[in-house]
């Protein structure tokens, strides 16, 4: 009966206009619609499949503002059993390393964790480093970029896909895995699941509950910050080529001028 923790994140909808705030150049989360990151839905789906095959339990964990409860509820409506929400204003502007430390501390509040599942990278920051950082902090083996996961007792087998090909990995629990977009197709929450999610427990924790000092997190203490930002320039009209028998030459000359060939 594996005890699984799935990391989830609420991100700006990719169909919305995303921008940084003028004041501190952090992500302006109020300027766009907020959704549960799609890669996290795949992580939840994989956890649920493991749960259904091995009678386990699934806890979703997020670090985020008040509105992140919407992402939690969707995860619970898909079939997760409970949730932990780390909510603290002191976390605003935290970098990936600080976030990983907070996640590791929060995972420590969940009893008997066997497996941590995350997406390979979030669609807002696209850092892709949290799973590896977390594995290091927890002292767990990491099996990243998984397109297939198999659990046999306490042995976890993963097929990883990269640009170079497929790699077959194996480790003993407890472990951290990250999944790619090819891992599965996430289920849609049913009406029954949506109603059941309203009664599932959600534990809210601050950094003090995790034994973390406010001086160790947040934008003022981050290892990396954005010092300047500018809006994306408007898209310019393309160049039209009239073919009077020399269209191919004109296109080639344009590509050469753009240093594309």
Quick structural summary:
It is built from 6 helices and 11 strands. It is α/β, with parallel strands linked by helices.
Explain this structure.
The chain is an alpha/beta fold and 261 residues long. Helices cover 25% and strands 25% of the residues. The protein has a nine-stranded mixed β-sheet with strand order 9-8-7-10-6-1-4-5-11, sandwiched between helices. A hairpin with a 2-residue loop joins strand 8 and strand 9. Helix 3 (96-107) packs across helix 4. The protein is globular.
What structural keywords apply?
single chain; 261 residues; alpha/beta; 25% helix
Major beta-sheet overview: 9 strands, mixed
Report the sheet-strand fraction: 15-25%
Low-confidence stretches: none
Quaternary structure state of the chains depicted: single chain
- Main β-sheet, spatial strand arrangement: 9-8-7-10-6-1-4-5-11
Structural class from helices and strands? alpha/beta
Discrete helix count:
6
What is the gyration radius calculated from CA atoms?
A: 22 Å
Question: Topology, please?
Answer:
Elements: E1 3-7, E2 10-12, E3 34-36, H1 38-54, E4 57-63, H2 69-78, E5 82-86, H3 96-107, E6 115-119, H4 130-138, E7 142-152, E8 155-162, E9 165-172, E10 175-179, H5 191-197, E11 202-205, H6 247-257
Helix pairs in contact: 2-5, 3-4
